[in-house]
Amino acid sequence: MILTPGITVRLCLLVLVTALVQVTFFSKLQLFGATPDGAVLVVMALGLVGGSVSGAVTGFSVGLLIDCLLFETLGAFAATYMCVGYVAGRYRETMGLPGRVGVALLGGGFTLLGLIVFAGIQIATGIDADVSTRVIGDAIGKTLLGAALSLPLFLGVKLVLRPAVIDDRPSGRRPLTPRAAGTRS
Amino acid sequence: MYRKQVRRRRAVLLLLVVASLTLLSLYFREGSDGPFHRAQRGVATVLGPFEEGADRALKPVRDLVNWFDETFEARGENDDLRDELAETRDQLAQAQTAARQGDELAKLQALTGGGLVPPGYEPVTARVIGRSPTVWYSVVTIDKGSGAGLRVDDPVVAADGLAGRVSAVTKGTAQVTLITDAESSVTGRVLPEGATGVVEPNVGDPRDLLLNFVQREDEISENQMVVTAGYASGSLDSLFPPGIPIGEVTDATAEETQAYQRVHLRAFADLRDMEFVQALVQTRGDGA
Questions:
Q1: 8 Å CB contact of B20 and A27
Q2: B54 and A24: CB-CB below 8 Å?
Q3: Mean pLDDT, chain B, as a whole number?
Q4: Overall average pLDDT of the B130-143 stretch
Q5: How far apart are CA B202 and CA B267, in angstroms?
Q6: Which of residues 104-163 of B touch A (CB under 8 A)?
Q7: Distance from CA of A178 to the nearest CA of B (A)
Q8: ipTM greater than 0.95, yes or no?
Q9: C-alpha span between B258 and A166 (Å, rounded)
Q10: Touching A: B residues 215-234, CB under 8 Å
Q11: DSSP letter string over A120-166?
């Protein structure tokens, strides 16, 4: 991703809007018994579009804002989303931009990764209550919702950052060679 | 060139990991008046109006999505539970009308106006504007804060019963830790016999609460109501007023090797889908 002042401003706004929309919109939805995690999908998209450094920094920023908005342990969401953004960015750097089906699969996978990292942080910092097995059901529901919502959010993020996106995925059209173009000398 | 990029990437990652771990450890170590807590409240204060605006702006979309989900869920129940058809229809109809919010407010007024609010407390109605996205935290943000008189540890009730307590405040917003949060513990009394225990969450299952430390000899049966006992427990410093409905008993088991019974409750308040709550604000200094 090519970072110009304009793109940096767009990134900052995207981070702010993502945190606000996560807390006020996605978190209040109930779909098939689970709550979708839109922020993790936006962070994944930022990692896929911008690479590991952009993914990690924006993921950390989105997470830190959510930690502040929820008055919860500073660093918990920040570390989770940083991890997701970094791994998504590394995927882009090693495998290239995924196709549409790939984005959906990655959406589910990164949602699950975020849940595992967050659960690990919670367990590491101590839980004083019983944990229900429904946590697993919630994780499955969130993962499926993540797969379903990832493509529209990915395309949205790509649209917002369009001027800065370096699309290294080969397009569907074959390149024109002199032969294919029918040039006659 | 490539090696330089790799070094830069690793340096940024290392920096962010160290920052995360530092934040986590320092946040736990410091008190609620520490610099990180103050900075967090500062950010929340600045973003509070934006959060409230976003909540209002996105409400129609949210209602539409939730309507689809409720309709889908109601159809499933329709197939499986014919005997609950009428009740489900009522719930669906309620969800489809704008009168729902009015109902919720009316129930809140009935709950807190029906003699449950003890002298020295005054109910302050607030709208839920934010919610935790994970089952590990069970917290909501409301649109009233210290400016409306709210203070940390004030009890909060929803339309059908106890919701939680205020755990942090800014001038215009407050965080409410729900009774389904891992850090919550409320002393409860089973009616009518009066057996007491500590109501704690079953993290990950917002419908299920546990009433712990109930003596084996106490007779507990299904559908008995549990209300607040009226004194603090655990990390809570202030008292919940006695008599606020919490939930009803769904299951009680007493294993032979255990000194206490394990009692499951279903919370009366629909903590996942509430629009309004009331904080019970102490109006005099000795209210606790």
A1: no
A2: yes
A3: 79
A4: 85
A5: 12
A6: 128-137, 139, 141
A7: 35
A8: no
A9: 63
A10: none
A11: HHHHHH---SEE-THHHHHHHHHHHHHHHHHHHHHHHHHHHTGGG--
Question: Of the candidates B158, B179, B175, which has an alpha carbon nearest to the alpha carbon of residue B167?
Answer: B175
What are the structure tokens assigned to B66, written together?
């939730």
Residues in CB range of B161: below 8 A, 6 or more apart: B111, B244, B245, B246, B247, B267, B268, B269
**Interface touch B20/A78, C-beta < 8 Å:** yes
Cβ-contact A111, A139 below 8 angstroms: no
Lowest-confidence range among A11-25, A129-143, A149-163? Answer: A129-143
Query: Nearest-5° angle of CA B47, CA A27, CA B45?
Result: 15
Whole-number Cα distances in Å, B144 to A112, A164, B124, B132 = 34, 41, 8, 17
Confidence label for B79 from pLDDT (cuts 50, 70 and 90): low
Residue B263: which of B246, B287, B279 has the closest Cα? B246
Cα angle value B72/B77/B79 (rounded, 5°): 100
Distance from CA of A112 to the nearest CA of B (A): 12
Taking the Cβ of residue B67 and every Cβ of chain A, the question of whether any pair is shorter than 8 Å is answered with: no
Token digits for B281?
């604000």
Q: Rounded to an integer, what distance in angstroms lies between the CA atom of residue B169 and that of residue B240?
A: 18
Q: Does B77 touch chain A (CB under 8 A)?
A: no
Do B43 and A130 lie within an 8 Å CB cutoff?
A: no
Q: How far apart are CA A26 and CA A31, in angstroms?
A: 10
User: Looking at residues B169-195, what average pLDDT do you find?
Assistant: 86
Q: CA A13, CA A20: separation in Å to the nearest integer? A: 11
pLDDT recorded at residue A149: 93
Residue position matching structure tokens 């006020």: A24
* B-proximal residues of A, 112-141, CB under 8 Å: 115, 118-119, 121-122, 125, 127-135, 138
Contact A135, A24 (CB under 8 A): no
Please give the Cα distance from B44 to B286 (Å, whole number). Answer: 30
Q: Enumerate the residues of chain A whose CB falls inside 8 A of the CB of residue B39.
A: 68
pTM of the complete model: 0.74
Return the structure tokens found at B42: 């500062």
Angle at B38 between CA B21 and CA A60, to 5 degrees: 35
Q: Give the pLDDT of residue B78.
A: 65
Note the pLDDT tens digit of each residue in A109-140: 999 999 999 988 888 887 777 777 778 888 89
